[in-house]
Backbone:
């Protein structure tokens, strides 16, 4: 049965989409069947996979409002084991439309459930807000990856997200777990990054991934080409970091000690 | 140079849109509200205003109504919000839903708040028979609360928390 891993943070610019796209690609590269679900109306994960949004007949919007099943929305990507549910601006409408529904937090869960068996991992990119879309993600997810950008404001945002998760576990999704906190945009030459890494170790302990995502130019370059980093430069530090993250998650999920 | 009586044009336009409003397919509208928005609306629908506009070379008739939605709010003895649901229960809270007082038209184009509509005996009220929310849907909301509850609790808790210690150098 597939596991739903959501990349969440209410803060923008912390590396959610980069992590969603490249983690999904790294898992697919080791032949895990992966579905990347773009739940951000900005649709950057969709563009990052080279999917032409204007040419889509349907998007995740149709899925969460119950208009269309997965098979009508899913699109293929350059990677054989990676498929995607794309997003575009019509998802902004769902923010309003879902509010009046009963079970409004379960629309994504209900959409994903029928295809759970078809994938090993379902990776969900989420919007940078605490709205109904994010709560749909939190309700549908089994595990969360929370990016921590190397700046103090982001540090605060992670703490807030953890508080939200604790309440969601009580009220909406008792099975929800935090897979880990992921340090992103890390520059070892900057003292503040090293201090934040140390603070994060103290605060989050084992929840902090050993993998650190470096602040690299390839993460800026690859989206403009519509491909994950590993398809641009397989052995680049950025690409390798997401293989490391995928390996860490796979080990943890399979219960293998590191 | 005036070549026609503007009062006649306005009157006929108002008659046209009034006829459209009076002959709307409420079964279809009810279906859309249920399917797309999960809403089942109250016993009466009050006509508010209408207008004629042009969008992308198409004539649009916009007809606004005020509808009643029965709203049930549950709270515990500590005053904490437990849940909110909309349904057609006979809860006393439904009496608080405003039933009178139409707003005057502010729409661009033709102002038709004083249109006399054909059909309903009571002016401005369109009869309908909207179904009640299904029992199981309402019950689920009640049992679990919603994301609003999460945000309320998060907001209450986090406002009492100190900022993070930023001086770790």
Residues:
């Amino acid at each position: 049965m597939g596991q739903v891993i959501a990349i969440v943070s209410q803060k923008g610019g912390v590396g959610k989409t980069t992590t969603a796209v490249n983690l999904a690609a790294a898992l697919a590269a080791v032949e895990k069947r992966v579905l990347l679900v773009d739940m951000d109306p900005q649709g950057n994960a969709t563009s990052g996979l080279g999917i032409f949004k204007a040419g889509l007949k349907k998007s995740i919007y149709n899925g969460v409002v119950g208009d269309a099943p997965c098979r009508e929305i899913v699109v293929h990507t350059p990677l054989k084991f990676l498929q995607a549910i794309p997003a575009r601006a019509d998802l902004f409408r769902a923010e309003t439309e879902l509010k009046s529904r009963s079970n409004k937090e379960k629309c994504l869960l209900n959409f994903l459930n029928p295809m759970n068996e078809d994938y090993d991992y379902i990776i969900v990119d989420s919007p940078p807000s605490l709205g109904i879309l994010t709560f749909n993600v939190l309700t549908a997810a089994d595990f969360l990856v929370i990016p921590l950008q190397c700046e103090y404001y982001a540090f605060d945002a992670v703490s807030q997200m953890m508080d939200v998760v604790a309440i969601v576990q009580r009220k909406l999704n008792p099975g929800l777990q935090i897979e880990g906190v992921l340090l992103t945009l890390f520059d070892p030459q900057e003292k503040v990054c090293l201090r934040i890494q140390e603070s994060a170790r103290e605060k989050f302990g084992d929840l902090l991934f050993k993998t650190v995502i470096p602040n690299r130019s390839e993460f800026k370059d690859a989206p403009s080409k519509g491909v994950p980093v590993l398809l641009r430069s397989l052995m680049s530090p950025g690409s390798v970091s997401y293989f490391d993250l995928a390996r860490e998650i796979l080990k943890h999920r399979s219960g293998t000690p590191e | 140079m005036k070549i026609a009586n503007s009062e006649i044009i306005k009157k006929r336009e108002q008659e046209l849109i009034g006829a459209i409003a009076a002959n709307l397919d409420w079964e279809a509208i009810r279906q859309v509200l249920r399917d797309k928005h999960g809403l089942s609306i109250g016993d009466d629908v009050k006509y508010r205003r209408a207008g004629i506009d042009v969008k992308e070379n198409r004539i649009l008739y916009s007809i606004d109504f005020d509808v009643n939605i029965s709203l049930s709010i549950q709270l515990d003895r500590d005053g904490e919000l437990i849940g909110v649901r909309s349904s057609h229960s006979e809860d006393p809270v439904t009496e608080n839903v405003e039933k009178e007082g139409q707003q005057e038209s502010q729409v661009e184009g033709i102002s038709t708040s004083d249109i006399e509509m054909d059909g309903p005996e009571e002016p401005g009220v369109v009869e309908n028979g909207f179904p009640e929310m299904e029992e199981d849907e309402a019950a689920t909301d009640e049992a679990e609360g919603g994301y609003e509850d999460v945000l309320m609790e998060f907001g209450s808790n986090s406002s009492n928390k100190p900022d993070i210690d930023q001086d770790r150098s």
Notes: The CA atoms of residues 70 and 87 of chain B lie 5 Å apart. Strands of chain B lie at 44-55, 58-67, 71-75, 81-86, 125-127. The interface with chain A takes residues 36-39, 85-86, 133, 137-138, 140-141, 144-147, 149-151, 153-154, 157-158, 163-164, 166, 168-169 of chain B (CB under 8 Å). Helices of chain B lie at 6-22, 26-37, 135-144, 147-158.
